[in-house]
């Protein structure tokens, strides 16, 4: 399956997906890395790996208009799925509806806990013992679409938002390719995915 990855920053999850896509038996390939930020470091990584890239700033235009520009790049690349990997934009409702069931996101918390931003600090402030990452289908409610897989990450007593986020990032790099691969190769089966990925978490 052909996948377009949308990023805003470093794109380490995009990079993890890219290398995973080159393993034997991978069921997906990355046909585009696109960003709302021309300076996103991940674009350079993609370029150097021979992946098509696209960038268009969202500044000075309305949301739906920017989404359309991004979407055109996705169509031009012939992508069947969109994967959001640190894409720091809320998408317009029409865009989300058009890609219903074909767009996944990774979020650095054990959803439904801590939707939105500052997840690591919020988990630490709450005194949680466990944090983690979630891959879910994108729906019009922020970080609330159907959960496809999660990995737990133990919180250490001396963790800061930075140290915790670094470890969660490592977990994300394992989880995301696994879930994307399963999703595109088996079709939509949330229960199956959830069980499988939870097993890996322990
Ligand atoms: C990840 O923690 C992801 O969960 C969140 O944004 C971050 C992106 O990191 N949505 P990177 O750009 O893939 O390194």
UniProtKB/TrEMBL annotation:
Residues recorded as binding N(1)-(5-phospho-beta-D-ribosyl)glycinamide, renumbered to this chain, are 11-13
Catalyses: N(1)-(5-phospho-beta-D-ribosyl)glycinamide + (6R)-10-formyltetrahydrofolate = N(2)-formyl-N(1)-(5-phospho-beta-D-ribosyl)glycinamide + (6S)-5,6,7,8-tetrahydrofolate + H(+)
Q: Which residues form a coiled coil?
A: none
Recorded GO CC terms: cytosol
* Keyword hit for Membrane: no
**Annotated site, Raises pKa of active site His, chain positions:** 143
Q: What keywords appear on the UniProt entry?
A: Purine biosynthesis, Transferase
Formyl transferase N-terminal domain sequence ranges:
2-180
Any idea of its EC number? Answer: 2.1.2.2
Pathway the protein acts in? Purine metabolism; IMP biosynthesis via de novo pathway; N(2)-formyl-N(1)-(5-phospho-D-ribosyl)glycinamide from N(1)-(5-phospho-D-ribosyl)glycinamide (10-formyl THF route): step 1/1
Annotated active site: 107 (proton donor)
Summarize the protein's role. Answer: Catalyzes the transfer of a formyl group from 10-formyltetrahydrofolate to 5-phospho-ribosyl-glycinamide (GAR), producing 5-phospho-ribosyl-N-formylglycinamide (FGAR) and tetrahydrofolate.
Q: Which family does it belong to?
A: Belongs to the GART family.
The protein's name in its UniProt record = Phosphoribosylglycinamide formyltransferase
Origin species, per record, is Pontixanthobacter gangjinensis
The record's gene field reads purN
